[in-house]
Each structure stands twice: as C-alpha cells, then as structure tokens.
Amino acid sequence: MIVRDRPSGLRLFFVLKGSILSRIWIVLLVNIVLAILVTIFHGDLFSIKITLTAIPFTLLGLPLAIFLGFRNNAAYDRYWEARKLWGQLLADARTMARQCAHLIQAPNPPATPSGSNDDPTDRPKRMILKTIAFAHALKHQLRGTQADTDLDGLLSASERTRFADHPTPTVFLLDELGADLGQCIREKRIDPCLAANIDTTLSGMVSVAAGCERIKNTPIPFSYTLLLHRTAYLYCFLLPFGLVDSIGFMTPFVVAVVAYTFFGLDALGDEIEEPFGLKDNDLPLDALSRTIEYNLRTAQGERNLPAPPLPEHYCLM
Amino acid sequence: MIVRDRPSGLRLFFVLKGSILSRIWIVLLVNIVLAILVTIFHGDLFSIKITLTAIPFTLLGLPLAIFLGFRNNAAYDRYWEARKLWGQLLADARTMARQCAHLIQAPNPPATPSGSNDDPTDRPKRMILKTIAFAHALKHQLRGTQADTDLDGLLSASERTRFADHPTPTVFLLDELGADLGQCIREKRIDPCLAANIDTTLSGMVSVAAGCERIKNTPIPFSYTLLLHRTAYLYCFLLPFGLVDSIGFMTPFVVAVVAYTFFGLDALGDEIEEPFGLKDNDLPLDALSRTIEYNLRTAQGERNLPAPPLPEHYCLM
Amino acid sequence: MIVRDRPSGLRLFFVLKGSILSRIWIVLLVNIVLAILVTIFHGDLFSIKITLTAIPFTLLGLPLAIFLGFRNNAAYDRYWEARKLWGQLLADARTMARQCAHLIQAPNPPATPSGSNDDPTDRPKRMILKTIAFAHALKHQLRGTQADTDLDGLLSASERTRFADHPTPTVFLLDELGADLGQCIREKRIDPCLAANIDTTLSGMVSVAAGCERIKNTPIPFSYTLLLHRTAYLYCFLLPFGLVDSIGFMTPFVVAVVAYTFFGLDALGDEIEEPFGLKDNDLPLDALSRTIEYNLRTAQGERNLPAPPLPEHYCLM
Amino acid sequence: MIVRDRPSGLRLFFVLKGSILSRIWIVLLVNIVLAILVTIFHGDLFSIKITLTAIPFTLLGLPLAIFLGFRNNAAYDRYWEARKLWGQLLADARTMARQCAHLIQAPNPPATPSGSNDDPTDRPKRMILKTIAFAHALKHQLRGTQADTDLDGLLSASERTRFADHPTPTVFLLDELGADLGQCIREKRIDPCLAANIDTTLSGMVSVAAGCERIKNTPIPFSYTLLLHRTAYLYCFLLPFGLVDSIGFMTPFVVAVVAYTFFGLDALGDEIEEPFGLKDNDLPLDALSRTIEYNLRTAQGERNLPAPPLPEHYCLM
Amino acid sequence: MIVRDRPSGLRLFFVLKGSILSRIWIVLLVNIVLAILVTIFHGDLFSIKITLTAIPFTLLGLPLAIFLGFRNNAAYDRYWEARKLWGQLLADARTMARQCAHLIQAPNPPATPSGSNDDPTDRPKRMILKTIAFAHALKHQLRGTQADTDLDGLLSASERTRFADHPTPTVFLLDELGADLGQCIREKRIDPCLAANIDTTLSGMVSVAAGCERIKNTPIPFSYTLLLHRTAYLYCFLLPFGLVDSIGFMTPFVVAVVAYTFFGLDALGDEIEEPFGLKDNDLPLDALSRTIEYNLRTAQGERNLPAPPLPEHYCLM
Fold first, then answer.
1. For site-directed labelling of B275, which of B76, B217, B235, D44 has its Cα 20 to 30 A away?
2. C85-132 pLDDT per residue, tens
3. Is the peptide bond before E221 cis (omega within 30 degrees of 0)?
4. 3-state secondary structure of C41
5. Strand pairing partners for D151?
C-alpha cells in the first residue's frame, strides 16, 4: 500500500513512486508513436485516407464507460472488502484474547505446573498465541508464501509439525482452537453459555478466512476483462485517425493523455482486483498481521516488542 | 469459471477460450454483412436514401446506457452474491465440523461399538459426513443433475434410500442433522447453550440454500431483458445507416467494434445472470463442493485424499 | 413473474407476453402520430416553425438520465429486497420446522392423547402448521386478498375464528407461536437456551413481515415519480420537432424507438416498484407460499402432496 | 408522505399537491423572465453580445451530473434508511410484546393484586406500554415536538414525571425497560437465557434510536450542497445565452423545462435529505408510531381502538 | 462538521464559511489568469496556434467522469461509514450502561464499603465510566491527540497510570472491561447467559474501534488519487485552448466555473476521505464523545452536567 501525502502543484506531474506509469509505459509509448506517425501522414495508411471522425469514439465511449466504470467499482469493492475482512480479523483476534484471558477460569484443583505443553494453566495463553499464528498463516496462505520465522514462539514443537503437515494450516489452527475450547468445557473451566460466545468468535475467524479465499480464488469473470481490454486498446489505437483532421499537430498529445488515463485505470484495476499480492497498491497484510501480534502480546502484559512495520519508500507491505 | 492470466499485447486479440465471441458470432456476422451492404449502396435501401445521422444514436445511447449498465450490475451482483453464499457454505461447513468434533462429548456410559449405523459414538463423524453430502446435494439441486457417486461413503444405505425418495434432498439432510443434534441433547452429550450454536450453524446452511434457490428461481424481470435486447439490436442494425455518410468505408469496421461490445456485454450478462449452470463463466460449484469435502475430511485426520479439481483448458467447473 | 427463455433472432421482436408494450401502446401511438404530423408539416405548428434542434435534447438528457437511472435502480432494489425477504421467510420456516421437530421433547409424563386441540404431544406439529399459515396470511395481507381455503387444515376451528377476528392476522399467528413456545418452556419440554433460538427464529419472521409492509406502504416519493413522468413526456413529445430538420422522414421511426424505451422503462418501474401485486412482473407470492407449505409438510413425512404451482402462459403468480 | 396514484395522460401536468413546483416557483419564474429578455435582445447584455454556445453546457453537464446524481442517491439513501429503521422499530416492538407476554412467568407466589404501580403481576403489560411510549417519544425527539397526549395511559404518574425531567426521554424509557427486566430476573420469573433475548431486543431499539439521531444530526456535508447549488444556478441562469442563437424563440420554453428539472431535483433532495420533518415528502412518523401502538394493544386483546391514521389531502403525516 | 442552513437567492454566492473556495483559490486563480492570457492571444502559444477544439474535452470527459464519480462516492462512503461506526458506538455505550446497571446483581454478602477502588459494589458504575473513557480514548487515538482532562473522574489513579503506559489505550480499556466482567462472573453476580450478552456488547465496541482504524489507516489507493489529480489538472489547464475559438471573451468565465467545480469536488473528496481530522467538513468526534458521556452520566442519575457542545461559527468539532 502506498502511503504518502498528495503532492501539490507541479510536483504532481513528476511523482513516479505510486504512479501506475511504470506498468503501462510500453503500450503508451507505442500508442504515442502511432499517433505521431498518423499526424505526419495526415491519417493516411498505405496511401488510403482513414475516414474516421470523432463520432465513432463518442459512440464507442458508451460501452467503454460502462465497462470501465463497472470494472473499476468491482475491483475497488474487492479491495475494500478484503480490507474489511482483515479489519474484522483484527477485531476477532482482540475479542478472542479478551475472552480467553477473562472468561476461562483457572483449573480447579490447580494443576501442578508440569512445564509440559499440555499444562492446563497455560491453555488460555496458548489459545491467544494460536490466534496470532492464525493471522500469520492466513497471510501466507493468501500470498502463497511459507510461514517460517513468523511462527517462532507461537506454536509448540508438536503443533508446528502438524501445522507443516496439514494441507490447509488455517483450518488446522481453528480446529486446534476448537479442541482447546472443548477441553476447557470438559474441565468445567468455562460456563457453556460463555463458551458459546468464544465459539462464535471462532466462527467469525472461519468466515474471514473463507471470505479472503473467495476473493483470491474467484476473479472478475475473465470475459469481462478480455472484452474491456480489447475495447480499450481498439479505442486508443484508432483514436489518432479520428482526431488528426480536427486538431492536427496536437493529436499525439491528446492521444497520450487519453491513453494514459484509460490504460492507467485498466492497470490499476488489475492491481487492486487481487489485493493480496505484493504489488505497490496491494493490502499491507504483513503490517496487519504484525499489528494483531503486537496488540495481543501487549494485552498479555508483554512490553518492549518490536513495533508494527512502517512504510519503506512510501510503501507498506 | 475461466482461470487464466490476462494475455498481453497482440495476443490479446487472438484469445478464443474465455472470449464471448463464440456465442455471438452469428448475429455479429449478419450485422457486419449489413454494414458492408449499406456502405456499398451509400445508405440507400430500395433506392430510398435512409436519412439517419449520428444524432439518433446519441439520443438512443441514453436509455441504452441505463439498460446495459443496470443489467450488467444486476447480473454481476447475482453472480457475486451466489459466490458469497457458497463462501458462506464453506465457512458454515468448517464451523459445523469444528463444533461436532469438539463440542459433542463421548457417550456416557461409553457405547459398545456395535458397528451399526446408529452407533452413538460415531454420531459426530456421521454429522460431518452429512454436512459434506449437503454441499454436494445443493450443487446437484442447483444444476439439475443427479447426485450419484458423490454421495458414496457419506450416507448410510437407509439414509441414501430416504435421500433418493425425498422431493428436496437438501431439506432432508438438514432435517437429519437437526435430528442428530436433538438426539445428542437428549443423551446429554452437549450442553443446550452449545447445541444452540450448532443449531445456528444449521440455520446458516438453510439460509445459504434458500439464497441459492432465490437466485436460481427468480431471474431479472423478463421485460427488462426483452426491452434491452430489442434496443440493442435496433441500435446496432440501424447504426450503419447513421455512420455511412460521415465515415464512409470505415463503417463496417466501426459497426463491428460497437456491435461486438454491445452483443458481448449482453451475452455475458445472460451467462453470469444464472451462475449455477455449466457454461464457461459460471461458478465452479464442483470445485467448491469438493473443497468442502477435502477440508472436512482432512480436519478429521484423513490424508491422501484426491485434491480438489484443477482447471482444465483454463476452465474450472 | 414471467418465466420464459430469451427468444432469439427475429422472434425477439414479436414476443408479446412479457413485453411492456401492452401497457404503453396508447401513449406510444399518440406520440408516433404526432411525429408523423410533424414530419409532414416540416416542424411547423400553426404555420410557425418550431425552432428546435438536437441540442435541447442533449441537455435534457442529463436530468432525464439521472431520473431514469435512479428510479430504475430504486424500483429494482425494492423488487429484489422483497424477494430476499421471502427467501428469508422460506429459510425461517424451514428452520422453525427443524427446531420444533427436534428440539422440543415429548411431554413427560406422556400426555394421554386426548384428541383435543390442546393435546401437548401434537404441539410441535401444530406450531409447524401455524408457520405455514403465517406464510399464506402474509401473502394475503400484502395482496389485499382473503385467506380462505389456503388455511384449511392448518388452524383449528377456534384459532380460525380468532384469526378472522384479528385486525392483523400475521401478528396474531406469531403471537400464538410465541404462546406455544412459552407453554413448552413452562412444561419443561425445551431448555431455555434452545427456546431462545426458536424465539430468534420467530423474531426473524416478524422482521420479514415488517420489511414487506415497509415496501408495500412506502412508495418511492411521489414527487420523484411526478417529476420523472413530466420530463419523460415532454422529452418524447417535443422530440419530433428537434429531429425533423436533420433526419427527415425517418423521424417517426426514431421517435417510436426512443419513446418505446423511455415509456417502457417508466412503465416497468411502475410495475416492479410495488412487487406484491398481481401484474405480470410481480413476485410469485402464491408459488412461494405454496413451496413453504410443500417443504414443511414433506419434512414431516407427508407425501403425495400437490406440487408447488408451475407457470401458466409463461406467468407464475 | 404523499399517497396518491399516478395521474395519467394530460392530468399529469396539472397535479399540484405532491409537485415540487410550490417550492421553486420564484426562482423558476426569475429564470424564465431572464430567458425571455435574452431572447428579445438576441443574447446581448448592455449591447455586448454574450458569445456562449452549447459547448460550455455540455462540459459543465459533466460535474453537474456527478453532483446531482450523487446528492440524489445520498438523499434517497438517508430517506430509505430512516424508513428501514422505523420498520425495524415496528419489528422490535412486536417482538418485545411477544417476548414480554409469553416468556415472563407469573410471579410465584402469586402477588396479591395491590393495585399499586409496582404490582409485579402487571409488569409484562407495563413493559409493553413503555415500548409503545418509546415509539412516540422517538417520534417527538426527531421532530422536536412535545409528547403530550400521546403518552396518556402508557406511563404511570411517577414515570411520567421522571420522563418529563429527563434530558433524553428515549434513553430514560429503555433504561426503565432494562430495570424491569432485571427485576424479573431477580424474581426468577424468566430464565436468564430467555432474558438475554429480551435484552437483545432492547439493544435493537437502542440501535434504531441511535441510527435515527445519526441521520437527523449529520447532514450531507454542507460544502457539497453549496457546490451543487452554485453550479446548478449558474448553469440555469447562463443557459439562455447559450441557446438563443440556435433555437431562437423556443429558448424560454426549453430553459423552463431544464430549470424545472434541475431546481426540482435540488429541492426534492433538500426535502427527503432530512426525512423526519413535517414536509410533504417526509416520513409519516405519526402513522408509524400509531401503528405500533395499534399492533401492541390489539396483541394484548384490546379491541375497538382508533385505527392508525389515514392520508388527508393525499398526505400522511 | 459545518452546521448551517442553506442560504437562498443571491446570498448563495457570497457564503465563505463552509465553501471549499478557501482551499483551492490559488490553483483556481492561476487557471483563470491562464485563460485570460489565452483569450488575449487567441490561443497562440509562442506564436504557434494551439489547435484544440471541444472534441478532446468530450473524450477526456469520459475517464474524468468515471474517476470523479468513483472517488466522490468512495470518499463519501468512508465518511458515512465512519459516522455509522460512531453511531454504533453511541448505541453500544448506552447498551453497556443499561446492561451493567440492571443485569449485574449487588454482591452477596454485601461488601463493606471500603472506599477503595476495588469496592465490588461500585464495579458496575466503574464499568460505565470506563465505557465513557473508551469513547474519549478512541477520539484521541483517531485524531492523534492526547487524552488529558477528558479522563478526569473516569479512571482511578492506577488505571490512569496503566492507561498512559499502554501502547493502544483503547485495547487496554476493553481488556479492563473484560476483566471486570470476568470478576463479576466469578463472584456469581451475573448469570453466564446474561454475561454473554455484555461480552457481545464489548465485542461490538472492539469492531467499532477496528473499523475506525481501518478507515484511518487505509486511504483510497494513492494511484487513483494521483491519476485523478493529473487528469483534472490537465483538463482544466488545457480547456482555454479548446474554448477560445468558439466562445471568445467568455472563455475565462466558463473556465473559472468548470475549474471551480472540478477542483472543488477534488478538494472536498480530500477532506471527507479522512473524516477523523479537524477540518471543517470532518466528523464532530468531540461532540459525539461528549454526547456519550452526557447520556451515560444522566442515565446514572447525574444532573446539571455540561450539555454536549454546540457549533461555533457554524462549525461543530
């Protein structure tokens, strides 16, 4: 995610980081060169005058506006829904931590601290650590990366082995949390009515994961994208022929501006349509999952933790 | 669902799989041939000059834009809501599996493993299998197909018979799950407060089924579709007469581009408006229900399962 | 609701059932006759040349597009929300049936089957029948019709008398269901935590009824409708004067097409804005309430029921 | 709220009640007079020809369309959300009545009817009356009026005194309902699980009140309204200069039509943006709160109540 | 937030407070000066005639309309969602106060009033004060200011110290409220089913905080803003060249009007996109949090409190 203030005045035109220009400069250049050639040859192609005026572009503007507007809104909706899901995950994780810490009673009789991983006294704390692990695991699942050092100190050795073996680690972690909760109920450390609330929180985390998988796995129908790309390309590459008779030597300049906005809007849609990647405008999943870790660890009294990451070169990952 | 990367450059124009062209080429061809004839005869029809200019098309563009934009958004909303419902089903199924596995206690006194289908020890496991069967049954109900081998190993023989006899199998399965839950409550294997949460999960699955039936059974009002088709056809078939005087021999080309976008948008809307079918852009219900099966079986410790299906020829069913 | 496949090719132009033409042919005819007269007299009215060009219509197109687009979306949103509410009612009814059948225990000690209407053993079944009655009663309330034979076999004689006496029968039925639930709680046949879930289902049915009443009783503000009608009528009736100078004898044809889309869109909005009526494009409340009856009766083991109604002349009521 | 059928044919143009004309006729008249003057002087102002054509109005149409469309949608969304909140209040009130009547048990041992206001036997009934009072109090809070005779018979004398003293009476009533519920719990007349459902209903009523206050206290940002008004006024008052050269003596007529739609849309937005007032198009809060009273009183067996109010002069308040 | 009535007539054009003019007058002035120069030199730049007509601006209007409309809607949606979240916070706080006051029983045996901060009798009251503190803390977190005197009388000395030490004070307060609730459960002062409802209210407050953080930390993707600014600036600065040939000396005036609307819309979007600041059109967080304090204190019987703040110079902070 690009994090920078809006530049003002002329500097507006010389910002590169955060501009979509780096992704579209080739096709833009080709288009401008074509416009220059058309201007030089007065719209003739192989000695045949291409009799286009502005009218076809007004007509073509109609479906193009529908496509671009639709695609733009759909892509942003996906981006924003993905961000909402992660905001919900932050809320669910905080709720989970609050519920585990205060609603689950100490074991009765007090367990002798065995130091083992199954020490019931520590179960609420281990559940909170697994909640943090869930956020990291979801991030890695969505980005297709490996959860390595992120999980240090969050899972026990045996949990880590099973985590690595499981085909969908996020499902594994929620199942473990469900097992912990069931164990607390059987040990009578929590009233079933309150356990039902924790169970609801877990279901909320399942919904977040399912929602993110939906956005990742179901793109905007490919035929839309194809139809939009084709129309936009045809529009921009034919445009010089339609303009040269009325605005003469200004044709390449106007074509450049129009093509910049159309190709830019198109490329931007490509980028935020899949908001879980590592491109400039994608969501800062790493910062988000680290914020969850930071929040849940401080809530347990830990201090001197590394703060959540800050943007580098105006970019937060 | 078409799953492929966006082609770049010139290849963009030669992609066939995923293009809507295969559905509209006849009407498009007729339109282009008409445009060629109009261009040759300079807009005369039976020796009478058709005095159309671009103005009527600008005026007609207004209602057409409203129709196309509306229909496009409505169709995509249906598609995306259907996908959301299946995402919710995935979440509900995972939640159901977690709840059955960890909130329902073992019978007390332990049941002697009788091997029969009513062995109470296995009831949570059988509930999870019925949840999988529900996903498959919903898929088949929405597609109008028969659930044959999909149900192997999920239902007992007697359940399978009653399943086949029931007019709405999805209702049957949820009713069975409700009966299982009631039985667990009567056997005191689950606290009512927690049973209430499982009951809520079942209600969520009922809502998903009702939502999918709503989308399947209630199309966009037919009069809209008819009004839109008629306007789009009239617009495209009259267009050559309006353009020939100003852009001459480029008329067929421009008509082809405009008609391609209008007919393409229209056909695409037809396709995703009913997202449960078996066309290219429809939802991959088979992959979704198999993912549910895969998730729920692995959560119970099964491994070496067939992975959920992958796209064939860029197409996921 | 019109249920028919999209006609293809030329047949598209000759479909009458489902077309909005039957509702607007008078005003359309008047408009076309005016356009013919204007064409014959070259735009003179009482020997005064009406100096209109296409420009005023481009300017007027702006507010008209805002009005038509807004009204169109608002009307469809009302239609679709109404359908969603009935989908929710279907889900709530199925949930209610499942909960009554499996969460309410048999009376203890078993009641001697007295055959009377207050036989506690039958109470869950009677609650399910009242749920069916609620769906029928809501349909009749929304359509302003009388629930006669629909209620046969659903309510006891005394209930039916009180039903007929009550000013809002849907409120009466939900109150009766609440009383039944309270009775089951007092008889200790259901745990309060589970009863709370049934109570929530009842609240969902209350919300559905309140939502449907909202749509029925609160139309789109009348001033919008008036402003839109006036603008659309002025636009279409002035249009011939603006076109005749540039497109000559094609004027009546173009006016006919434009007026058909504008009046059609307007009339269609009128129809689906109030989706509970008995017009062609209204919601099939009868089919929906019968589906609920069919579902709930089959879930109780009844078979050989009359199937939910099918479309007649492409129309489902 | 205007309640009348859509007039047809010519009568459409002579409807006054429900038309926005009464609010905009002054500015409209000024505009038309200006257009007549411009037409007479051929667009000269103090002997200087104002060289405007239609082009600036096409360009200005773009931001104006964005403003008007945005403002129109935002205002209607506020109106419709306000109506939804009151629909939710109707549902919550019915739910509250059902829950109080059937989930709260008679006191044990039976209280001797003391006739005092604290007679525990009557508490459910008094809670229902307070729910009715809440609906009336919310109406008066939103309209800035005094709840006088509306509360007769709903509150006891001491409650009425405290109601009058409280700075926010709606908060007072919900607090009283919460106290009644707490008292029932302490008297063991309701199981806590069921009391939790009533508490949830109360929270729903709190949300309705907070939602209505939000709409009342937070208008659409003033700068939007200002920017829109200025642009619309400039557009309409400059329009005669741009049209007079091309359409001559028809200028005042076209200006009148365009200005009527723009000013009308603007004034209509002003009206429904604040939907709780007493203007023609505002929400019929009085009818809604009386419907709630009628519903809740009939549900308790009262008959021969005054029916909810009907529209007077096509207007429901 | 600007709170003032809409001015009427000519005064509309002389309102400054609430107008966006103060933020854009520099760039507007530069644009107008350029337009005057272009008009004087008849569109020549360094003796070269810039051959622009209105056509490029019609074409450029298409992407610009998509950008401006999208950005405008997205910014307002953020503003309105932020307001909804604070409305939800108001509702949650009132609910919390009602639940703490009436669902938590007095301690049994009655605690001897020790006067200490841990006096269990006062715990519900202290929980309500912490809820008020949460609203103030959230306001300060979102505005980046320090919660100084706002917290006087709300937190005990030791709580205040820990509050100041905690990296995210809002998380701290909800954790404290969770601990208080857990303590009440352990002391058997509240039934777990009812405690579950209070826990749900706390989760609602967590969601509000997470939603506000989402809006604050995730702006509209920077590339959109950049693309929009560039297109709008190019459009307005090139516009004089396109108009001068057709409308002559009116060019600077028309350019001023068009640029005012485009730059104004752009600047307004900048302002409400981040609704938690201290600019004129931002949300009145201070008034909102003080309303919460006022509501919760009066509900506990306090009177003679300072009323929530009123607008100063038409502006509510």
1. B235
2. 999 999 999 999 999 999 999 887 666 655 555 677 889 999 999 999
3. no
4. coil
5. none
How many Cβ atoms are within 10 Å of B33's Cβ, its own excluded? 11
Q: Which of C276, C123, C282 is nearest to C209 (CA)?
A: C276
The answer to whether C61 and B59 have CB atoms below 8 angstroms apart is yes
Residue D105: CB atoms within 10 Å: 17
Cis peptide before C113 (omega within 30 of 0): no
DSSP 8-state assignment for residue A44: E
Residues of C in contact with D280 (CB under 8 A): 223
Q: How far apart are CA A224 and CA A202, in angstroms?
A: 36
Distance from B57 to chain C by nearest Cα, in Å? 9
CA distance D20 to D261: 10
Q: Which residue has the tokens 């019109």?
A: C2
CA distance D196 to chain C (A): 8
**Coil vs helix vs strand at E48:** strand
Is there a contact between C299 and C102 (Cβ–Cβ < 8 Å)? no
Q: Does D171 contact E58 at a Cβ distance shorter than 8 Å?
A: no
User: With an 8 Å Cβ cutoff, are A207 and B280 in contact?
Assistant: no
Residue C33: is it exposed, middle or buried by C-beta count within 10 angstroms (0-12/13-18/19+)?
exposed
For B185, B202, C191, D40, the CA distances from B196, given in Å and listed in that order, are 10, 10, 10, 79
Residue B238: how many other CB atoms lie within 10 Å: 21
The shortest CB-CB distance from A61 to any of E62, E206, E221 is to: E62
Query: How far apart (Å, rounded) are the C-alpha atoms in residues B88 and B98?
Result: 15
**From the centroid of its chain, how far is CA B314?**
17
Residue A250 DSSP one-character state: G
List, in sequence order, every residue forming a beta bridge with A49; answer none if it has no partner: A44
Write the CA distances from E167 to A306, A308, E163, E247, integer angstroms. Answer: 12, 11, 9, 61
**Hey, are the CB atoms on E98 and D178 less than 8 Å from each other?**
yes
Residues A182 and A178: their CA atoms lie apart, in Å, by 6
Give ipTM to 2 decimals: 0.94
Looking at the DSSP assignment, which residues form a beta bridge with residue B49? Answer: B44
Q: Are E12 and D263 in contact (CB under 8 A)?
A: no
* Rounded Cα gap, residues C117 and A221, in angstroms: 57
Do B221 and C2 count as a contact with CB atoms less than 8 A apart? yes
**D16-44 per-position pLDDT tens digit:** 777 788 888 999 999 999 999 999 987 66
By residue count, chain B amounts to 317
Element (H, E) at D199: helix D192-217
For D307, which residue in chain C has the nearest alpha carbon? C167
Query: C217 and C31 in contact (C-beta within 8 Å)?
Result: no
DSSP E106: P
CA distance B214 to chain C (A): 6
Is the omega angle on the peptide bond into residue E109 within 30 degrees of 0, that is, cis?
A: yes
User: Residue written as tokens 């644009």?
Assistant: E31
Residues C223-278 have pLDDT tens digits of: 888 888 888 999 999 999 999 888 888 999 999 999 999 998 888 888 889 999 88
Residue C284 CB contacts under 8 Å (≥ 6 apart), including other chains: C1, C316, C317
Residue type at B32? I
CA-based max dimension of chain C = 97
Chains A & B: contacts with CB separation below 8 Å: 185
Give the residue among D116, D120, D90, D87 at the shortest CA–CA distance from D105.
D120
Residue pair E260/E28 in contact by the 8 Å Cβ criterion: yes
Subunits with 3+ C-beta pairs closer than 8 A to C = B, D
Residues D304, C245 contacting (CB under 8 angstroms): no
- What's the one-letter identity of residue B152? D
Q: Using CB atoms, which chains have 3+ pairs under 8 A with D?
A: C, E
